[in-house]
Design brief:
Helices cover about 70% and strands about 0% of the residues. It contains 16 helices and no strands.
Amino acid sequence: MAKGSARARVAAVVRRLAPGGSAAEQAEAAHALARLCSDKSRNKEYVRGCGGVAALVGLLAPGGPPAVQHRAAAALASLCVDDRASEDSVRECGGVAALVGLLAPGGPPAVQAQAAAVLQSLCKGDPQVFQACIGDCGGVPALVSLLAPGGPPAVQQRAAAALARLCFTNARNQDSMRACGGIAALVALLAPGGSAAVQTQAAGALGNLCVGSVETANADSQDSVRECGGAAALVALL
């Protein structure tokens, strides 16, 4: 497809995200953008250039249709894969705070899981920047709240995976995890009979909590894991 026609196609899809459109049309347009950006960096550039990131972030607003929120978050995930410029654009448009807002208790599990997955992904490209940004937006306690007993395993798995990224060598987020009961919540997920996928992510998050830096351990987190019964629970998984 010629460069001009590709740009025009992306712009036409972005226009369908505009406020006032039907939820079905917005969800379909967000899904189309996710497909367009799945493996084409040039399309990602076009999305940014025609205001697509801000439009997608706008669809994450509280109270919006869950199907639209889910598709918009998925499109942002596709946009940001291996694309630092898109990650920065999401942050500058308020996307991190909007994604954290989707983690609120009582929200649709599919939306919560997708939002957690995007937050995890954002921490891959520029960890220090996004660890700090997500932490500032209250992301740690919001994700910990999704670990509650009886919650959907898919949500617990995504939340634990995101927390593992947020806390790796980040003392501030590690402190926040201890303060909001995150260690006890992760240890509880290791109980016998639980989902193996959830337990894998919970164990990984506990491990990252104990890494103070690339070369040192976080003694406070190690003590907290032991006091919460984490060492015994981890051994029992072997």
